[in-house]
Amino acid sequence: MSAERTAFLAELKAGESGRILGVAGGHGALGRLMALGFVRGREVKVIRNDSLGPVITALGDSRVAVGRGLAWKVRLSRNTRSASRPGKGVSS
Amino acid sequence: MTRKLGAPNARSTLACHEVPAGRTPADRRSSCAGRVVALAGNPNSGKTSLFNALTGANQVVGNWPGVTVERKEGRSRKWGISATVVDLPGTYDLTGQSADEAVARDYILSGEADVIVNVVDGANLERHLYLSLRLLEMGTPLVVALNMMDEARGKGMRINTGALSRRLGVPVVETVATRGQGVGDLLRAAMGLAGEGVLAAGQGNLKVDYGPAAEREIAGLAKSIDAARAEERGREPGGTSLQRAPARWLAAQLLEGDASVTRFVETLPEGPAIQAAAAAGAARLESELGEDVAAHTVRRRFEVARELAEAVVFRVAAPVAGTSVSDRVDRFVTHPLLGAGLLLGVMWAVFKFTFTAGAPLTGLAAGLVAALGSAFGRALGALDPGGFLASFVVDGLVAGVGSVIVFVPPVFLLFFALSVLEESGYMARAACVTDGFMRSLGLQGKAFIPLVLGFGCNVPAILAARTLESPRDRLTTILISPLMSCSARLPVYTLFAGAFFGARQGLVVFSLYLLGVIMAVVMARLLTRRLLPGESSDFVLELPPYRLPSLTRAARQMWFRGSAFIRKAGTMIALGVVVMWGLSSLPWGVDYAGADSLLGRLGSVLAPLLEPAGFGRWQAAAALIFGVLAKEFVVAAMGLVYGAGEQALPALLALHFTPLAATAFMVMALLYVPCVATVAAIRRESGSWRWAVFAVGYSLLLGWGMAVVVYQVGRLLGLA
Known about the structure:
The complex is a heterodimer.
Chain A: E1 5-8, E2 17-23, H1 29-35, E3 43-48, E4 55-59, E5 62-66, H2 68-71, E6 74-78
Antiparallel strand pairs in A: 1-6, 2-3, 2-6, 3-4, 4-5
Chain B: H1 25-31, E1 35-41, H2 47-55, E2 59-63, E3 70-76, E4 83-87, H3 99-110, E5 115-121, H4 125-137, E6 142-147, H5 149-154, E7 157-159, H6 161-168, E8 172-174, H7 183-194, H8 212-232, H9 247-256, H10 259-267, H11 271-289, H12 293-312, E9 313-315, H13 325-333, H14 338-383, H15 388-405, H16 408-424, H17 426-440, H18 448-453, H19 458-464, H20 471-480, H21 490-501, H22 505-531, E10 540-542, H23 551-585, H24 598-610, H25 618-629, H26 633-641, H27 649-656, H28 659-671, H29 676-686, H30 689-716
Parallel strand pairs in B: 1-4, 1-5, 5-6, 6-8
Antiparallel strand pairs in B: 2-3, 3-4, 7-9
Helix pairs in contact in B: 4-12, 6-12, 8-9, 8-11, 9-11, 10-11, 14-15, 14-16, 15-23, 16-23, 19-29, 20-22, 21-22, 21-27, 21-28, 22-28, 23-29, 24-25, 25-26, 28-30, 29-30
């Protein structure tokens, strides 16, 4: 099961990355998220994702903590496990 | 396209005292002080460092009219140039959705500034260029400060400044604001543009192409807006700064559904028709593009920003492959358990530092005040024995001012420690770690820092609540901050716990701190469930890179925040001192703060109410009345009403209080009525007396209720 597949940012585990497909809506906090660069086509990498608290992400040279509620509004296509982290790596 | 830029040359023809309608006196002041330069940029772009480098110590911190957004203004006189520098709030965009963005946008559009300096993080160019593109669209004279070039070079990046400048069509100057490098060149470049008032031909020529469909809609709307504005030109000029905005920008904002631009357009002749056309256009676009208009325009701007960055940035060293050190640190620091443990450790260290390093300074300040008091007493006593003046100066002024001065060292040191944490980048991580817990209270992670500040002093805690975007979160945080046991309450605990609990006093004091936190948790839940329902705002927070904090910058922050605190607290306390002195010494001739003074009589009236809590004596009531002024006054007042010095007081208290009553009294002192400075801060920050009165009311009830519960339950358990 290494094919690309759609997921929400909140579902990605630490070390995983994906390409943003879309951000639902565009106002309020979502607007802020977009202004930070969360737009279609951008690569996001998850640095930390626990069941509690925000998802810590890397977006280019920026590091952004995205609240759990918002992380369920960012749709992306999950990249296959790449060479960046060999082995099964981090679990949360 | 007759009016590419709003109100051309409005600024340059303006003489010093001709101020257009709609400008405030504050604006008038700044328009008289030479050229006005405004700094715009993302949070963490080094804007504040640049502001400091430009203005040195010539800074005035205030509020933007009507909102609790900090306004910083300063004068630059270096490099032979005299200019006023305005530091706009740090924002990622200028949509006007948050108070910060609205303030920045209105100011930029107002034409008040001769030139905008856009501070950009050279090490994160792509992200930061987004705002530059937004500023160019607004048609303002712009200079880009390519800041943090030391970090960019450290990351192996080289930036072709000339190419960037040509592409953007505005001057670009490399700076390292923290070391003052390039700042003079930047100011000269800004002054070069300032004279022109508007962008000259060929300047700011970079335009984001939104694609044929969107461009068609934008062009159509822009034309209608221009026509409507031309028709309106003969009429009274409206107050809004949107009047001056370029039509193309207005049209794009309208399509994105910008609320304030929509409201503005509706006031134009044919406004409703334009608005209807915009709504139809947006719907057409959305079905054509398959995405939200805003999602499309934002993405297009980022694509342009990326192209720009890729064209001008050269990486000498390849970016670090895999996970960087900083990311690995983040994985640990934001871990739900390890990170929480680290946070507790850091907070403990901050308080240890504040109080350990502060103790000798506090002792010194207390000694100084005591010496001053007795010197004044002797001098004035010789002039006018037992007189009005001596009493006012010694008992009122010196005692009142003294009680504030004693708290200056810990408050300053706390600000210093917190500035160091902020500079290092740790504060943003702390907000992440606490977000989960704060959310269970109906709040969010960013509320944590203000509440921690509350342990030092409630006033800065309330001011720090400004970092919360949603009014509901901010208000809740403001209202529960006073339950954090501030350092002024510690002397009360020390006195009573020392007198009654001997070796166990540490545990007693700790329990009181804990009780305050528990009460804050309970109140937060009550407020967010009952009074201020609704979801807590979503959490988005940029985590700035870890940096070695600069002690001089932390010291500067400490000085600004600390002196602002003293000014605010000082005025309230000066007023309170006069009132309290009056209550204690009137009717003239009674023993100062004796049973027959107004204070004593008031205490006697209130004492029966305190009976169920076990301390129904006029002295206790009088001390609590004093405590409203500043909580540490409770100790001084106890000394006064019992007529005892510091040494004799504990023994005297043991005669008048049982240990159980003393505990109830400490609970009351912890929870009842925030001090006047805090009440004033609540009033100012919540924008209404209603919430200040609410805070006083609920805390009074809570304090009294908890004191009664402690006393009565204790009695039932057979404690005395």
